[in-house]
Each structure stands twice: as C-alpha cells, then as structure tokens.
Specification:
single chain; 32 helices
C-alpha cells in the first residue's frame, strides 16, 4: 500500500490515506463506510439518513466514526454541530481531530459564534498535542467579523504555540507546528481588514519561519540554491512566513532577508512577495531577481514593475529575455505601460512583436509582446496584430483580439467575432461591445446559436439593456431550450444567464415558454423560473424540480484499487506528470478522475488556464471555465492542504465540480476547505512548472501498482 508521503503529516490522520485499519468484520465495516459515503454524496438529511450517521458516530470501529464525523462536516450545516460534540471526547485521536475539523466545516463562511463554544470547551479537555494543534488550525480559519473575536482567537493560537514542544524532523513536532502555522496563516489573512497580529505573535512567527532550517555544511545556502522540499519543516516555514507577512503592515527587513536565503525556494518565494511592503526594497529585490527559482524571480518582477516610475524598467527589459517563459511573459505584460526609457521600450517591443516564431514553436512570448506593442504604439503595431490574428492556435488568436482592441481596430474585432473557435469569439465580442456598445447587438444575437456555454453566456450578459429586446428573445429562448435538452448539471451557468436576460428582455408573452422550467432537473433553474413567472404574471408560481439521478459512489474494491494506482499524463512538450490519488479522502472525485482517464476523456484536452505562482487548470472540452463533464460532483474538502503539487477539483461554487482539475504551482492555503484536493503530483513537477497556456495532454492512463 502506498504511503502518505507527508500528504497529511498529522499522525492521527495518516490512516485517512489508507484503507480502514480495522479488519474486524471487514464486509460489515465496508458496508457501513460505503453507506456513509453515499449519504455524504447525496446530502440526504432524512430521519433515516441521520439515524445511520448517528449510529456510525458511536460504532466500535474508529474508521467508521472518523468517516461519520467527516461526513457531518461536509454537509456544512451549523445546526448539526451537536452531532459532533460527543466525538470531541472520542478515545481515538484521529476521530477527535476529524471532529474538530468537521465543526469548522459545518460553519463554513457563516461566522464564528456557533463553533466557538464547542471548540474552546473541547480544547480545554484535550491532552493530545497534535489534536490540540488541529483545534488551533480550525479556530484560525473561522470567519470572524469582529476585531475582539479575532483577537480572542489569536490569544488561543499564541498560547498553543508557546506551549508547543517537539523538534523538527519528528512526526509530532512537525505535525504540531504545521497545524499551528496553518491556523495563524488563516487568521492573519482573513483578519487583515480587522486588525494586525500582536507584536508577540509576529515575533513567534519569525522564529517559526526558521523551523527545521539546518544549512548544509554548516552554512546558509545561497539564494541560487534550487532546493525544494515537501517535508513538513519546509512547509512550516512557508506557512509561518505567509502568516507573518499577512499579519503585519510593516514587515521586518531582516526577516525577509533571512527568508530570501532559505534553502527551500517556496520560502524564498513568500519572502520575495513580502518585499512589496518595504519602503525601500531595491537591494533585496536585486537578490530575488537573480534567484535560481523562476517563481521567486516572477514575484520580484511584479514589485519591480510597480516601481518603474522611480527605478525605471531595466529589470523588465532584462526579464523579457528570461529563460523561463512565465517570467518573460510577465515582463512583456508589464511593458504595455510606459517606462521612463521610452525609446528603448519601443525598440524592444517592436523587435519582439515582429519576431514571429516558426510554426510548432511556442508563441507565448511573441503574442504578449504584440499585445504590449499594440497598447503602446497602436499605429505601428498593425501588421504584427494581423499576423497574430492568423495564427493556427486559437489561444494566440484570442490575444490578437486583445491587441485589436488596444489599437481600436473595430474591423478586426468584427472579423474575429466570426472566428471558428468560440474562445476567440468570447474575447472579440467583449472588446467589440466595449468599443461600440449596442452597435454590436446583432453580433451578440448571432452568438446565441453556438454550442459553447461560455460564448452563449457571454453574449447573453452583454445583451443587458439591449434597445431591441424583441430581436433577442427568440434566440435566448432557443438557446435555453437547446442547453436544457442536454440534461447536464454543468449547463447551469449558461442557463441562469439566459434566464436573467429573458427576465429583462422578455415579458408575459413568453410565460408559456418558461413554464416548463418549473420542473427542471436543476433546482436553481426551477427556482429562477418560478420567480420570473411570478413577476411576469403577478400570480405565485412554485418550483418543483426533478433532479437527475446521482452517479454511484465507488465501492470498497474500487477504492482499494485506486489506492494502488497513479494517473500518468503525457504532455505535448514531451514531459510526463504522474499523480497519486487520495481515494479515501476524496472518493467520488478521485474515482471520477480515474474513470474519465480510463475512458480517454482527457486525451487531446488542454491546460487552458496557466496562472503563474498560482495554478494550472485543464480538462475542459471547450478549453474554458464553463465546459466540463456532465454531472456535478460534490466537494470533498478536508484537512489536506493546497500545497504545491497537490491536485484539486476546479469549481464555480459549492458542489459544482465538472472534472476540470488544477495543480497548485505554489502553496495556496487560501483554497483550503473550499476546494477538493484528490491527489498529488509525485513525479514530473518540473513538467507542471513548464506548462504553457494551451498545452495539450496527448495521452492519459491509469497505471496500476507494479506497472512501468
């Protein structure tokens, strides 16, 4: 059985990465666990379902109790906290830790009072040091809306940090410090508008930012070190430094300087990001700009760009030739704004915009250079924009639409509004409307006949306030019927947009066309149809949705097989990405991903979104945010963090997973408890780092244990 590899460093939770540890009556236990997962997925809150959950909360098996408390938390119902308080006294520390986290999830974004009493009372009686730290982590992430409550939570976390023992390199010491650092990071980030952290807490965080840092050979490694660690000690330092920089308005220069010399480039990146708060960051920025890690240089370059009026653009000019494409692209994007060295800036952009890459080579630097050139010298950039508009890649042609807008080229925007690829048309029509307003309404109405949900949604939104509603209503109704006929959960966004526009442009004459949506399969659509009809007719209408059947939850045998498997993605660049799944933490989403891989779903799809120092996102047949696999899947959030290299499920709101995935390029702890993490890249992270916008997944397969 594969090990957790520090996916969850809390020893009490390690079993969550493996099958249930109890083999007493395995078939009966497997049945209970499967029933709990099915209830969690369906969110069944009937008396019969609640009775099953309550029985599992007191089951002889700790595995059953742990899955039961996690399920209660994932319902995200604050009125169910009373079901969890008993588990805070469970004999098994893993169950207690899961119950603490479940209470935090039950009040997700609701505010702190409902959970505060249960958590603080439970903490008073807790003796396990790691579970205590989970209390701290959970108290740190509650949604405080008052400075006094935020201060009270800080006092609890500060006391826990002061009491914390253990050494780096030990399981308990690292686990304890990691949980507390995560709690303080959440508290500092979410409470930034309320108050800064106390000075004493800030000092403690600066000490924690050196946790486990032992320089090789007895000396501190230089910023050119390429080291990266997934070990907990490095993650503690990253989270502590994130908390420190978020919790103070005036970070200490020496603290950031120490971070810039850390052997782990993740720590160095956080330190570089913090330089923006310094009054005079130039000297330290110089160090960060020559760091061996591109993501450190990228952070520094953003700050340098903001200082251009004072310091000039020399660093941007140099970065335009950076070996890393992401750094170079950022430089070109920033060069769209004037520099003091205007002549040199125009010369660089002119040469870069006319240096068309050969077919088959990366177009990214060139396309961004063309957009910048068009913004800065619209009259000179015409031929470069025209060449870009004819590129074979629709991703490149979308940049041509942006460049055309910068030049005020209405003719090219109208031409690109008929591009074969919907994503190009999305950019073109947005820019066209920005230029001519309702003079583009006929173009927008024509887009409503498309099959791409993002394009149709965009057109519907842009038709707001149209002076010719009669021309739009038939096309709006036709599009609504067309997407409804697909019977896909993931049509929600486009259908909501169409109903919103019909609410404005339509009227009682269209009531007969809208009435069938009262019994739609999507409760949100049925509810909006009822509101619209009530408003139009003056008579109350009641929604009566008929939901689509749920997909079956993976059974015990399937989960065991997934735990022995990895997913391999072969990329267009020639690189390979290997992902280990977490089926016992996110069973439905891990199983769906593996099933779709096995069916060939991902082959030929792209990573359509590349956000440097954030995520890469892909797996959409339309290469956009609004087109994915048909049914929505439930969120399966938990204690696993969005650390660099973890793989999560992209959503557009709660429980709206459509099989699009993201890979964290850095530690994105702000995504914790909001997005499902169902795997981790175990090989090929350097390939992930090199993915550029639009890169294709040429092959994908599930590799079983023992396969090469």
């Amino acid at each position: 059985m594969p090990q957790c590899r520090w996916i969850v460093v809390l020893p009490v939770l390690l079993a969550a990465c493996s099958p249930p540890e109890s083999r007493s009556g395995p078939e009966a236990l497997d049945g209970i666990l499967h029933a709990l997962r099915s209830l969690e997925d369906s969110r069944d809150d009937s008396p019969e379902a609640v009775a099953v959950i309550r029985e599992a909360l007191v089951h002889d098996s700790a595995a059953a109790r742990r899955v039961a408390v996690r399920a209660v938390g994932r319902y995200e119902r604050s009125d169910w906290i009373e079901m969890l308080t008993g588990a805070l006294d469970d004999a098994h520390p893993g169950v207690r830790a899961e119950a603490v986290n479940a209470i935090g999830q039950a009040v997700w974004n609701e505010g702190w009072p409902t959970a505060w009493t249960s958590l603080t009372e439970g903490l008073a009686g807790e003796r396990d040091p790691v579970v205590q730290a989970v209390y701290g982590q959970t108290l740190g992430r509650l949604a405080y809306h008052e400075a006094t409550a935020h201060a009270a939570a800080e006092r609890v976390l500060s006391d826990l940090l002061a009491q914390a023992g253990g050494e780096s390199g030990t399981t308990v010491g690292d686990a304890r410090m990691l949980a507390l650092a995560r709690g303080l990071e959440s508290l500092a980030r979410r409470g930034g508008s309320l108050r800064a952290l106390d000075t004493e807490t800030q000092v403690s965080l600066t000490e924690l930012a050196r946790w486990g840092r032992v320089p090789e050979g007895g000396s501190v490694e230089t910023p050119r070190s390429t080291g990266e660690s997934r070990l907990p000690a490095a993650r503690v330092r990253r989270a502590a430094l994130m908390a420190y920089t978020a919790g103070t308005t005036t970070p200490d220069r020496s603290v950031l300087a120490t971070g810039l010399s850390d052997p782990d480039h993740g720590v160095r990146r956080v330190a570089a990001r913090g330089l923006a708060a310094l009054a005079d960051p130039v000297e330290l920025l110089g160090r960060a700009l020559v760091d061996s890690a591109p993501r450190v240089r990228w952070e520094a370059l953003r700050i340098v760009a903001a200082l251009r009026a004072r310091s000039g653009c020399a660093a941007l000019f140099e970065a335009a030739a950076d070996a890393d494409a992401h750094v170079a692209v950022l430089a070109f994007d920033e060069l769209a704004e004037p520099c003091p060295e205007a002549a040199r800036q125009l010369d660089l952009l002119s040469r870069a915009a006319t240096d068309v890459p050969p077919s088959g080579e990366s177009w990214h630097r060139w396309a961004h250079a063309v957009v910048a050139f068009a913004a800065l010298a619209p009259h000179e950039a015409g031929s470069a924009v025209t060449v870009l508009s004819r590129h074979a890649s629709p991703f490149a042609r979308a940049y041509a639409a942006s460049a055309a807008a910068a030049r005020g080229d209405e003719a090219l925007l109208r031409q690109l509004s008929s591009d074969p690829h919907p994503n190009v048309r999305v950019v073109a029509v947005r820019e066209l409307v920005a230029a001519v307003g309702h003079g583009a309404d006929s173009v927008l109405v024509a887009q409503l006949a498309a099959d791409d949900p993002q394009l149709v949604m965009t057109a519907a939104d842009l038709l707001a306030g149209t002076p010719a509603p009669a021309a739009a209503v038939p096309a709006l109704l036709d599009a609504l019927a067309r997407f409804t006929a697909q019977r896909r959960d993931t049509s929600r966004d486009v259908r909501v947009a169409l109903l919103e526009r019909l609410a404005e442009a339509g009227g009682p004459i269209g009531a007969d066309d809208v009435a069938p949506y009262l019994v739609d399969f999507d409760p949100m659509i049925a509810r909006r149809a009822a509101e619209l009809l009530t408003d139009w007719t003056g008579e109350p209408h009641t929604p009566d949705p008929v939901p689509l059947p749920l997909a079956p939850v993976p059974g015990p045998a399937e989960l065991a097989e997934l735990a022995r498997s990895t997913v391999v993605l072969d990329m267009e660049s020639g690189g390979r990405i290997e992902i280990r799944l977490f089926p016992y933490l996110a069973p439905t989403n891990a199983a769906r991903f593996a099933r779709l891989v096995g069916e060939g779903y991902f082959e030929g799809l792209t990573f359509h979104r590349v956000a440097p120092n954030f995520v890469i996102q892909g797996g959409s047949p339309g290469a956009n945010e609004y087109w994915g696999d048909g049914p929505y899947s439930r969120d399966e959030v938990g204690l696993v963090g969005n650390w660099r290299g973890t793989v999560g499920l992209s959503t557009r709101g709660r429980d709206t997973g459509d099989a699009q995935i993201y890979v964290n390029l850095v530690d994105n702890l702000r995504l914790d408890h909001q997005y499902t993490v169902f795997g981790e890249v175990v090989r090929g992270m350097e390939v992930v780092d090199g993915v550029l916008e639009g890169e294709t997944i040429v092959a994908a397969r599930v590799m079983r244990e023992g396969e090469g």
